[in-house]
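Batch manifest, entry 17 of 40.
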Amino acid sequence: MKPMTPARSRFLALGLLIIVLLLLISFVIRPLVSNFLAYGERIETLENQLQIYQRLAQGLEQDEARLSELKAAEPVTDQYLPENKPALAAAQLQQFLHRQIGRQGGQVISTQIISSDEDGPLQPISIQVHMRGEIEDLVDLFYSLESGKPALFTDNVTVLANPRRQTRVVRRAGRRVEIGRSVPALDIRFDLTGYAGKEKTP
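Output type: structure tokens
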């Protein structure tokens, strides 16, 4: 076997060096460059998300400040029933209704608490009302209930004519005398609902 000439040896060494460089580029440098570019894109994406979150955080702070101003100007809590316990809230709602009917006119026949299993941030407190009154009494009552505070809502309203008369027996000059008394013209039934905050559990 003839020894290689110096020129051929140099050519072969140069070829081996090129092969090694190509392998190094393919298996080491190219993955590193790809990872670097991927990290750069990921960093850019995260920076964009961070800017979005910062803008949202600034907007949230402004919204919270605005909400605090609105609450201070007109508190929302006075729209709710004062009591959180359903039984106490229902009793207060009944007392409130009796006061309103006393002011507007009319006669309460009965009230009954309506149980509710509704789940939400507020608990509905409802009572079923049976009363008698004139049309003017009913209009004034519904207006005062639905336009005042706390916020109250009427539902399932039924209004029937009530032509019956009530009589009362009295004694005059030793004889029994029946005195007729007109019953209010309308027999009225409806559901009245207010809302209370959730009862805090210990």
